Amino acid sequence: MFGGSSNSSGSKTQSNIKTDEKPPSPGSTLNASAPTPIRSAAIRSASGEKRSGNGSPPCRDYNGGLIDKKRRSSGVSSRASSFLASAKNTLGLSPSSRSSPDMITQSPLQKLGKQDPALAVPQGQHNNSAGESVPGPKSTFRVGVWEDRNKNCRRTMEDTHAFLYNFLATPSSNGEVLTKSKPEHIAAEGIGKGMVESDNGYFAIFDGHAGSFAADWCGKKLHLILEEAIRKNPTVAIPELLDQSFCSVDAQLDKLPLRNSGCTAAVALLRWEDRITIDKPAPAIPSRSLPAKLHEVSSMEKDKMMTGSPPMRTVSSSSLDAVSHTKRKAATVRQRILYTANVGDARIILCRGGKALRLSYDHKGSDEIEGRRIANAGGLILNNRVNGVLAVTRALGDAYLKDLVTGHPYTTETVIQHDLDEFIIIACDGIWDVCNDQDAVDLVREVHDPILASKQLVDLALRRFSTDNLSCMIIRLESEPPATLQTTTTSEKETEPEPEGSVKISEAEKIILETK
Question: How many degrees, rounded to 5, is the angle at CA 432 between CA 431 and CA 436?
């Protein structure tokens, strides 16, 4: 009757007697005048007899009970071993896989790298996810990165960053793309044909949530997707191509195994472009020199504003007609343009004359505009989180919330003023949770080493008890552009055709080919 509930009690009694049992002595607590049956019961108990506990008498056939117990224990052990082996096979931890160290340490990204060489690119200097990228002779900027897991608050590091010193070369003024070939075409040619040194920079920080998979994937792939979009659509505005690239990343992440992983993204693209001007170049766009106006523009309004190039927006329609009829007198000015795109709460800050100019938008549940968008899409904001779960209202990945958490980025376009613009800060929300834009600019403005400047910002966040992973990237701009990139006329550009049959590859393509 009590057999089912007495196993644990009996085993405990048995172990206690075995450990505490001593040879009988005259001073023993057992009464010498006790009846023989009680003494024999104690001896039987000490010898391993199964007891029912609570003072119940011992089983009649204690030897048989012990054998039954061993049989039941053996059966349970075999079933447990079978279950454990099945679980190991499911997780890829079978004995055969244990013999291969590569199988144990492989992450989902590394497994996907067998099909996609871009995902197998090793980390470069400063833990660069895009691979090894170093400044060249034409480089007029320097990149510094510093990151910290914040071990007191976080068990894992879910931030990723990527940068390239020689991003895809800018098309010439007649629209011809300098790098025509694709990786699969130039694979047979090898990398001996040379790489285009463009002085165009790509910079990005990805802050992952629900694991680092989405952030790691974006660090390896987003610049390649953007490069391909620019190559195929050389006449399309860069902000529109950034939007297309972000949406393409979203669609591809939705097809990958870890669909619950997501990340915020802050991406900046620094390019030299030829801009047509009349009489004298327009050094900057007035609307871009006013931070207040830039902050007040919503993402939808910003997309509408990005349909034309900035200098053309400052010229009247009659002047544009004059340009079209006086091409020989028109001049092209080589200007440096900074394009940005972000989803989530990672920020991009430009230091212009010592003032912090924010070029990103915080997509948070606490934002009124984003809250209305979520409500119109059928969701709700609970505790400043989308459906009470996600703190950001825009992100890449997060397939389970994709109807609400869009991947369309906030984009900006800014003409760099070489006499005013000093550096760019890109950092995850772990920095901005404890530091405002102007404080960050003031802290690092006089620190000309971008690596040291990045470290100082991360250290400041740690001192102010930030509880998140910390990543900071600083891009230092040269005060004066190189002489070779100054004003040239249209006729001069047309007299320098690209050599026929030449094969030039971008830095991103070169990195992948070297990995193969």
Answer: 120
pLDDT of residue 39: 45
Partners of 277 in beta bridges: 331
The rounded distance, in Å, linking the Cα atoms of 461 and 297 is 29
Mention every residue, 6+ apart, whose C-beta is less than 8 A from residue 236: none
Element housing 414 (H / E): strand 410-415
The predicted-structure confidence for 351-401, as pLDDT tens digits, reads as follows 999 999 999 999 999 999 999 999 999 999 999 999 999 999 999 999 999
* Radius of gyration of the chain, Cα coordinates, nearest whole angstrom: 34
pLDDT at 122: 87
Whole-angstrom distance, CA of residue 43 vs CA of residue 193: 91
Q: Where are the beta strands (DSSP E) in 210-297?
A: 262-277
> How long, in residues, is the chain?
516
Residues near 209 by beta carbon (within 8 Å), at least 6 away in sequence: 158, 261, 262, 263, 264, 390, 395, 398
pLDDT per residue over 121-169, tens digit each? 888 888 888 888 988 888 999 999 999 999 999 999 999 999 999 998 8
Residue 50: its pLDDT value, please? 41
What is the arithmetic mean of pLDDT over 4-16?
A: 44
Domain residue ranges of the chain, discontinuous segments joined by +: 3-90, 108-362+411-494+502-515
DSSP state, residue 401:
G
Confidence of residue 349 (pLDDT cuts 50, 70, 90): very high
Q: Does domain 108-362+411-494+502-515 have CATH number 3.40.190.10?
A: no
Write down the residue that tokens 């510093």 correspond to.
Answer: 146
What is the rounded CA–CA span in Å between residue 102 and residue 505? 32
Q: Centre a 10 Å sphere on the Cβ of residue 109 and count the other Cβ atoms it contains.
A: 18
| 3-state percent breakdown (helix, strand, coil) of the chain, nearest 5 | 40, 20, 40
**Cβ atoms < 10 Å from Cβ of 133:** 23
Phi, then psi, of 79 in degrees rounded to 5: -65, -40
Dist. CA 176–CA 200, nearest whole Å: 17
The CB-side HSE value for 418 (13 A sphere, CA atoms) comes to 16
Among residues 473, 355, 494, which one has the least CA distance to residue 422? 355
CA pair distance 71, 329, nearest whole angstrom = 100
Report the DSSP pairing between strands 201-209 and 385-386: unpaired
Interatomic CA distance for residues 141 and 486, integer angstroms: 17
Confidence (pTM): 0.68
Whole-angstrom distance, CA of residue 149 vs CA of residue 445: 25
Q: What are the C-alpha distances in Å from 457 to residues 88, 154, 432? A: 44, 18, 10
Higher pLDDT, 344 or 278: 344
**Count of C-beta atoms within a 10 Å radius of residue 155:** 6
Sign, CA torsion 268/270/276/279: positive
